[in-house]
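HOLO CASE FILE
Compound: adenosine-5'-triphosphate
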Amino acid sequence: MSKIYDALRKAERDRGRLTKRRARRPPASYPRETERERILLRGMDRNFRRSLLNLRNSIDSEMRQKQSSLIMFTSAVKGEGKTIITASLGRILALGEKERILLVDCSIHNPELHTFFGAKNETGILDYLAGEAELPNVIQTLEEGFLDIVTAGASRDTNVTVPLFNTERMEIFARETAEQYDYVLIDTSAVLEAPETSIIGSYMDGVVMVVQAGKTRREVVKRAMMMIEKLEGKFIGTVLNRKKYHIPEFIYKRV
Ligand SMILES: Nc1ncnc2c1ncn2[C@@H]1O[C@H](COP(=O)(O)OP(=O)(O)OP(=O)(O)O)[C@@H](O)[C@H]1O
Ligand SMILES: [Mg+2]
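Model generated. Tokens follow.
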């Protein structure tokens, strides 16, 4: 009898040990998402975010040698994803060490950057360039203070707006924003479709080409690249935007 009792006690003890050993450890404590992350990454798909982090690292290392960080986003033709990438990269950059980020909408034929942030497009860069507003009047603060934007502003006849980019005021805009911000990201129109894009490029420190994979023909992209290459030493790379999979690919130096 006592043998059976002892065996039962042993079995019970063993089961206890086993249960203790098996007892789940409290889940490893993941670093909690900060308020900044919660706001800036809101609604951003995980893969899209990962690709943008790669893009940020490439841009960071490319821009290290430069004095300032004015970067223009363009493409060969319209609709390749310039605006979504400019807006999303702006958010990702605002998470990093360099925190003062300004987004500027120079895509004057189809100004949409403000729509990604629910901002109004009333007074913007066109009003500044026309001498109808000063810099502090055209800067809007977004995402609870983490980002700033200059929208395109009141639409006008393109015969009037295009030459505005070729003025001293544009030069002052570029210089002053570069002084005030760690990164200035400029959304533009497609380089083959808008004459002002190359002019804007001449004030930049870097130019990124967005190419929608599987859509734009290689010859067309090459023609656009030739225009960018005229802006000597400014070409940073190409973002292959795979719209189908929602993933902007890594920067390529060659297409
Ligand atoms: N990687 C992506 N994931 C999801 N949607 C995308 C992606 N890239 C582009 N799109 C969608 O495709 C459309 C065109 O993108 P976007 O407006 O950014 O292009 P664009 O180059 O700025 O166009 P435009 O030349 O007219 O200014 C938008 O509806 C955008 O949301
Ligand atoms: Mg756009």
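CASE NOTES: The chain has a mean pLDDT of 85. The beta strands are 70-74, 101-105, 140-142, 147-150, 183-187, 206-212, 235-242, 247-252.
CLOSED: yes
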